[in-house]
Sequence to fold (658 residues):
Amino acid sequence: MPTIKDVAKRAGVSRTTVSRVLNDNGYVSHEARQRVVEAVEEMGYIPSAHAKTMRTKRSGVIGVILPRISTETASRVVNGIEKELAENGYQILLTNTQLQPEKEIQNIKLLKSRQVDGIILLATNRNQDLLDTISETSIPFVAIGQELSGVTSVVYDDYHSAFSVTELLIEKGHRNVGFIGVPESDHAVGVIRKQGYLDAMKKHGLSVEEGWIQYGNFTFESGYEAARQLLEQSEHRPTAIFAVTDRMAIGALGQLKEKSIRIPEDMALFGIGASDLSRHVTPALSTVDYFNEDAGQKTAQLILEQLSGKVVEKEKIKLDYRLIERDSV
Amino acid sequence: MPTIKDVAKRAGVSRTTVSRVLNDNGYVSHEARQRVVEAVEEMGYIPSAHAKTMRTKRSGVIGVILPRISTETASRVVNGIEKELAENGYQILLTNTQLQPEKEIQNIKLLKSRQVDGIILLATNRNQDLLDTISETSIPFVAIGQELSGVTSVVYDDYHSAFSVTELLIEKGHRNVGFIGVPESDHAVGVIRKQGYLDAMKKHGLSVEEGWIQYGNFTFESGYEAARQLLEQSEHRPTAIFAVTDRMAIGALGQLKEKSIRIPEDMALFGIGASDLSRHVTPALSTVDYFNEDAGQKTAQLILEQLSGKVVEKEKIKLDYRLIERDSV
DNA sequence: GTATAATGTGGAATCGATACCATGAACAAG
DNA sequence: CTTGTTCATGGTATCGATTCCACATTATAC
Fold:
């Protein structure tokens, strides 16, 4: 690989002049510029980003930490981020935590060692170690998915969406609404969505029987299993199930079909996520669209804003959502 | 951010000694090591990967070029790659081309400027410019998904899988098998899979009527549309449809359902990809599993092999596949 | 026609790490 | 007691770019 020195020699100028041409700053005569451009072309010269970063302290890279790469939600968010950042000349460096909280911290260090200009975290938990690590981090940082105290966060409207879903089911005449949640370590999904459900029930004067609330772990299988539990409620069996993710809802759907329970006549079903799946299962699953791609884009914009140098208040952006009513209710 | 110099000062040793402790090579007394470790800890020192890369010419990063980030296939492949590389101390730098061929070349340059130690390309086409760019590239390179001449490639067994699918449909008694393909610019999917279909038909003495072959562009919608075309064949209407991707198969499924055509009684349906979707639509879609995650892992292993320094022959690895027969046939 | 500004170019320092070489101390072998 | 290893440490060059400063040269103003 040729270096700037080689180009300089070939063009018969100094490294400084080559640098000027490349970055289009300073005075360069027409002839000198011409010769440099030719030399670059002929030698297939590609500047070293490392040397540049080292000198300028800017890498043009934003680190993105994902819980897992292969989820639809994450993919969409990344898409949104990518789109926005690429337009502004930034590149993404993706890392994933395989859902291990300690890896989040590890990855933040890793990204810092690579001099990323900013970090975006798709958060799944909010443990103190993580918060500490972030607050020690001097570079622009935005979290998405969870509200992290002291950190600019982009969050979905977990509470109101869950509330609305529950209320919609109630308005459809259901009084016994079952719920499939996830562990509380994921605050947004595990705590807030449940709260939305509980508050909606309460508002309408409906009690929530023990056994109506089951838990899964985001997988189809756990939804399938949770639905089995819900069906076993001997008296006061739910007539509707609200699962906090589409995958679990579709797992539940499998259970219901297996038991030949008609949907929505005998059991209504609602999910969250607006996954491709939700649209194509039968009956089509009612769900909530969180506009993940827009969320990613918004997050990227916040990072860019911080990057632009102006001092920015830490803020919390709550995004819009939309209920999608389909055949399952 | 503290540098190695700051750590050296704090520990009362030279930079060289700090480097020795960090990389665990050369002689360092117990006390000196102790002091360095403490200093690193206290200052929260994180070494600059850029400086290191610059000096050592090794970045510990493998570039991965994807056609699009948010597809199930790509996600799985990346997962496999990640798993294997992470175990060997490498990191991934992801870029995507948004399906624009010229961006593939652009991204290769970008990755080279970042001194990646190797490049993995999820290829969708095989144009000459791309091949030229790759052959000019001196670093380890592996393509996956398409066979690129002169490049180590990991490919799916597109031909035999398509052949098997077609044959299976024929053995089920179908003589009129319709086909939904994609443009030939994607050689593996557009050309080879179609060839497998055609050869299987020929082998069994079946002619392929004009109009039985339709084309889509990987989307649900295009599958839906292609199926409509297939249904319009007035005489000799197909009794089975083989779509070269699950998404298009599921698009077709929508069309069939809309027209109240019973599956599989009136029309059998087969896809490729073993997507989550295929398992959960009704009726469950028969499909081909290409073991994408294993493919990613295998690809990573090939890169690691090249990285290990031994001279490796360019090779072409053809992967296994598995037909998954479900309710749609 | 001289002072001043604009234009054009290169030398050298710098970013933060590693690698090579030199040097010194401690200790064993002859 | 000299010689040769092993152990321990530091100085300095280097990787490939940018940036600052110095110095010409040319153009413009008065």
Q: What stands out?
A: The interface with chain B takes residues 1, 44, 46-51, 53-54, 59, 68-72, 75-76, 78-79, 82, 91-96, 109-110, 112-115, 136, 138, 220, 250, 253-254, 257, 276-277, 280-282 of chain A (CB under 8 Å). Chain A has a mean pLDDT of 94. Chain A is about 45% helix and 15% strand. Residues 59-156+293-320 of chain A form a domain with the Rossmann fold fold (CATH 3.40.50.2300).
